[in-house]
Write a structure and sequence with these properties.
The structure is a homodimer. By secondary structure, chain A is mostly helical. Chain A has eleven helices and no strands.
């Protein structure tokens, strides 16, 4: 096992012109670990990812991964660093006419998913949420505190949290169907038309 | 490894009053394998499930699982046998006033998810779709042929398939949010209120 790993690493290092063997913790090492972790979480989910495999993929020793990140949880949170800060998104979405709130939410959400980097990160999150109860709990808390609570407060109606979480169901559903299941014609419809179809529905959930 | 498995099986057999040791392929063996497979797919998804582990859980030899099911794919399809036949569901949903179509779809869908057996099977499907591209492809074809096509044909408008697949996004999203992520307040809202909130939206997608 160790021999196989070592030769894989050596081959990779040779191909990229690096000196073979374990690299020391340089300035870009943390970034390379995060990149490898992101790829693994995206492809294999939370449960299918191990620190050892991430270390191998990044070409470093597992101890070095532990030096930078206390646990797989921490590695996940750091590597998942959302393409945009959810609190900034909430603030941006809440600025503007209330009757266009649904439109702003859908445009912002699909905007993240339509960028290749954003899509890779969001897919990793979704895959990990589904395969691990622990990650589901993490995401549940994150969504509630960073998005549902502030948007609900702005709505200022008694059932605001239910309204906002119904919007979340529609957004999660479109992400699952378009980007993960790739069900047609939702997967192949131009994003502008999707926004036109979905925005009135999210607006309805929020203010009707 | 083999020793641990054997004693676990013996303990299980003793606890249930069965004769210890490998059981022969009796009339209920296939059913017990399917039950064990369903549990594993629901908890660990498609990738996290192995024929060996299913055999262990069912208290039989892995060769016996292979005797009944050619592959993990086949075991999945058989064990996932939907709680209800999708074609019958489509037919039932399509019978009745068109302006209540959205309501009938949401009631039927949530009805399946609210039954414990249905929920376990649907969770297994959702988890497996997310963790395996192969299962995602199977589901995509199944949903398209058995549900989207007949419902779209009944609608009889040019963009019918897009309309029906948008309904699918909302249904998949409510399932993910309520039963897998368990995000509140969607997770704790009585099902009748959820139907009242979501039915107008699915109706809007279909006929507005």
């Amino acid at each position: 096992m160790t021999g196989r790993r070592a030769s894989a690493r050596t081959a990779g290092a040779a191909a990229s012109g690096r000196t073979p063997g374990r690299r020391p913790g340089g300035p870009d090492t943390r970034g390379e670990i995060l990149r490898a972790a992101r790829e693994s979480f995206a492809g294999k989910g939370f449960s299918g990812t191990s620190i050892r495999a991430v270390a191998r993929e990044a070409g470093v020793d597992a101890a070095l991964v532990h030096h930078y990140f206390d646990s797989k949880d921490e590695l996940f949170i750091e590597s998942m660093a959302l393409p945009i800060d959810p609190r900034q998104v909430a603030a941006r979405v809440l600025t503007g006419p209330r009757e266009e709130l649904g439109h702003r939410i859908v445009t912002t959400f699909l905007g993240v998913w339509e960028s290749p980097d954003g899509q890779q990160r969001m897919k990793a999150i979704l895959r990990s949420v589904v395969s691990s109860d622990e990650v589901a709990r993490l995401m549940r808390e994150g969504i509630t505190q960073m998005i549902i609570a502030p948007v609900a407060e702005t709505l200022g109606v008694p059932d605001a949290k239910l309204r906002v979480s119904l919007v979340a169901t529609q957004l999660i559903g479109i992400a699952m169907t378009r980007y993960l299941i790739e069900l047609d014609p939702v997967a192949s419809t131009p994003v502008a038309e999707l926004v036109d179809r979905i925005a009135p529905v999210t607006q309805h959930y929020l203010t009707n």
